[in-house]
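protien #1 (seq + structre)
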Amino acid sequence: MDRLLTAEEIAEQLGVTPQWVWAQARAGLIPHVRLGRYRRFRESAVEAWLCELEAECSPRRSNRHAPLRSA
């Protein structure tokens, strides 16, 4: 089982404020687990979420700028 992290721990890893982490969790944008009144963040789920964000932001390959071949 992955370790469940607090918003403060996730904020430190991401280089953001804990308030930002809480806002993202409330908006349903960052994966989290509710344990009563507490919200915890599974390390592997946050890592997978980051990978998805990276994939969305990476430029798609385009043949438009590919060098022309001579015949």
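ok now protien #2
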Amino acid sequence: MTIDHGKLEQQVFATVSDLGAAVSTAAALVGHKAGLYQAMAGAGPMSPQQLAEATGTRERYVREWLNNQAAGGYVEYDPAAGTYTLPDEQAMILADPDSPVFLAGGFDVVAAMWAGVDRIEEAFSSGEGVGWHEQHPRLFSGTDAFFRPGYRAHLVAEWIPALDGVEDKLAAGARVADVGCGYGASTVLMAQAFPRSTFTGIDYHEASVGAATTAAAEAGVADRVSFEVADAASLPGGDYDLVCYFDCLHDIGDPVGAARRAHEALRPDGTALLLEPNAADRVEDNLNPVGRLFYGASTFLCTPNSLSQDVGLGLGAQAGEARLRGVMEEAGFTRFRRVAETPINIVLEARP
């Protein structure tokens, strides 16, 4: 065995960096839950004692946490004054849930993945799936918090207008199904924007359906929005103008069967909207930070969920546009195109 010591040193530092990031993700989750980021946002320089007093926490813990955050570049440290500042840019990412780039929900998702390590390790040997409902409860609220800012920023303003004729139908009064609705963020946003339309959200996860029902009531749209416990292949009803799959088609055990059911349930001039991770068709083109994130999440969450269901196709979060097109065409759709994208997602339109 011949060792290139330069490469070895480089990889040691890369691994130490990853360990530091993993530890700091846990620290960031604590900061998020304890309200430390929120207290620092817009407050200017703060001492550890000031931050502790503002959040009802203990100074010694806060001081150590702040040093971790400063080492990672999340906060800025002034050694002369002994104070720490959360820059406005970081505050958009860490402290403001209404920001389009708020990512703090992702920390809960990562915590859920760590909680599932033993079960996923067993699945590697057995080949068995691990259902969404079998994951740590942090996953459900964390996923909602992670994706909700993107939906709020882009769904009504950009993605729906990009679909052929769909915005006009929704404005006039359309029937919409939201498959894999989770906590109902996408469903409620559409209902608020299009008061003449009616919406049905389905998810096989009963607890998520309960949370979505509560969210609709709190938003004042429960008269036009309903949620049901059902799997994607059992989409109830028909004559839909729009069937949506927000970040979920690749998680389904039988995505072809689910898409075929959508094809049956749509009006002849209806539309299916797919929101999927922004992945290229070739592995080598996904070897970047976003691809790393989604391949990791897919290993722990998306692929195991698909493998736990009938068929168990296991598309994975990085399926890519070509493979998704193949799924929809096999289900009977004849027209398929990319209509929008963000650094995180691609938006795809399929029509009968």
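The first strand starts at residue 76 and ends at 78.
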